[in-house]
Amino acid sequence: MEIKVGIVNPDEKKQLWQISQQTMTIEVDPHPYRPDEYDRFLQKIQQGKAIMMIENLTVLGALIYYPVTTPEYTFWEFELFVRPEEQGKGIAKKLLKQLLCCAEEQHIAFIQLHVLGTNPRAIRLYEYMGFKRMEEKNGTLFLANQWVDDFTYQLRLLRGKREADS
């Protein structure tokens, strides 16, 4: 397995689309891409940067991150998805570690994400990696016939280093 950071080639784009369709369902994402939104998906990839785990030309998982700039600082948000058959093998953790390396090099203020309460595996991973819950919206989304909690997590970085490392 190798980690690739950078430009996504046409075959990888197709694979990323397939993985997103398999994993980013209404149960874990309030705004999953519909089958007719391939062009919107490609635009989002082009706006961000990709970190992918690849083995034998097959994308096993990917993390797409996007800069968000305010007058005070720049931070990143991201989407993370791993092929269902590859989940639980440490791929997401490796992708997140690579993201943290990139963020530290570029002196990013913090990394932020949104995750639903219906995705406890992802929540455990983010908390293990040092992300802190910053906001909790209880039962604000009605998805798949149930009220769902929406959480905002952040990992603050100080001068290119994680707070936990300082």
TrEMBL record:
Keywords: Acyltransferase, Transferase. Residues 3-158 form the N-acetyltransferase domain. One of its GO terms (molecular function) is acyltransferase activity. The keyword Acyltransferase applies. InterPro entries: Acyl_CoA_acyltransferase (IPR016181), GNAT_dom (IPR000182). It comes from the Bacteria. The keyword Acyltransferase applies. Its EC number is 2.3.-.-. PANTHER family: N-ACETYLTRANSFERASE. This is GNAT family N-acetyltransferase. It comes from Enterococcus camelliae.
